[in-house]
Design brief:
Strand content: 15-25%
Strand order of the largest sheet: 3-2-6-1-7
Radius of gyration: 28 Å
Mean pLDDT: 90
Largest sheet: 5 strands, parallel
Shape: elongated
Number of helices: 19
Structural class: alpha/beta
CATH class of the largest domain: Alpha Beta
CATH topology of the largest domain: Rossmann fold
Low-confidence stretches: 1-6
Length: 512
Amino acid sequence: MTRQKQQHGVVHIVGAGPGDPGLITVRGLECLRACDAVVYDHLAQPSLLDAVPASAERIYVGKQAGRHTLRQPEINRLLVRLARAGKRVVRLKGGDPFIFGRGGEEAEALAAAGVAYEVVPGVTAALGASAYAGMPLTHRDFASSVTFVTGHEDPTQNESDIPWEMLGRGGGTLVFYMGVGRLDALCGQLLLHGRAGTTPAAVVEWATLPRQRTVTGTLATIAQRAKKAGIHPPALLIVGAIVPLRKKLAWFEKRPLFGRRIVVTRSRTQASELRERLERLGAEVIEFPTIRLVPPRSERRLRDAARHLNRYDWLIFTSANAVERFCAIVLEENGGDIRAFGRARIAAIGPATRQAVERFRLAVALQPARYVAEEVVAALAKTEILDGLRVLIPRAEVAREVLPERLRKAGARVDVIPVYRTVPDKPVNAREIVKELLAGKIDTITFTSSSTVENFVRAVGRKNFARFAGKTKIASIGPVTSKTLRDYGACPAIEARDYTIEGLVRAIKAQR
């Protein structure tokens, strides 16, 4: 279908998967990236909304036990109304739309209204929970069938249509959705209809997410064990001989950072690399963007330098952000001709900055062994006579003056050109995060620059920062950031040896 709006629009009923945003389908992501409106549920992972165009309408219709933002008939009418307004709509639902997701009812309403729709299947919760908790739903030696059962039937029904006698006397694996509040009753029905009390059973809470918890027992004990553990929805009950396989196959919960909750304070545009690395190790990452990168107040000097790079002997980059912004301006000012960089050689402060340079097919002539400004000067002095050298440093509008000052002291002629500036940012969920920090529910806060420290303290308040700094581990990317933290009265428990994102992640992983 083309991006052009249709007279009556279209609705894509998309399964978001069980929680882990990486489990959405390729087609589901395509629909999100092309939509004009997204109508999403409580169980659809919020980070999936990052794929939605900034101009798209976002409408939350989440339903939790006893609390409905909109009731199902209202949701049906909303989808019809949006489509009739000519919009391309994504109805984003947790799990799979057609497995206990009421997607069938929404499709019926759309069909009755003559609205075009598409159903995009998703990974249903049973598949996600069994895979991430290490319990294969079928196994050649233990189970040749699997049955999905709702634990929460339509309350308007006069009697249950669940075939309890068949489930009680049959074999194979049983998976009950939405039944946590009725575990005693569900297990009681199975026992009453013939299942042995010694049958292995498990409850999986928040399946596929870093907060996943799994409680095991037997059909006779699982309800009490889940209650004692404080298990709450969303959770699944899994019953069958495959449950004990978890002892050997529970890979997800063995990840090195599993269960740790880590705050990332980088800007939204920068956070993805750190977030992805931490999540791959099992952490639950909470974004608290403290800074935003914006253009400098004036670009006159920047664009002049971009057109006359032949003036300079060296370009020195101290951040990947500066590389990306400056190189883009150079290409823009010179008709996309990479030869505009001319004879100027390039120095990069560290590997991340070097990689950013190399993405523009440019060579890095110098990178110091230690990734700080002082080392750049020392490394440059070993290869050049600094007296009279023409140096350009494209960087943030506000930054440490150590590098240009030392170069000038050695006789170099240095131009410092601002290519971007950082301004404070504050997430919409700041209050909730501060509350959790004060309650000691966050394990680690990461800081990747002095500006993230300063703006984080500004966002949460100095008193609050002092209160939770002793309860929560603080991780710093390097000594400059650590000094800023100490200036605010916080001593970092973790400091990267290599002053890079990879080095920071390695240091967090090593801290137990």
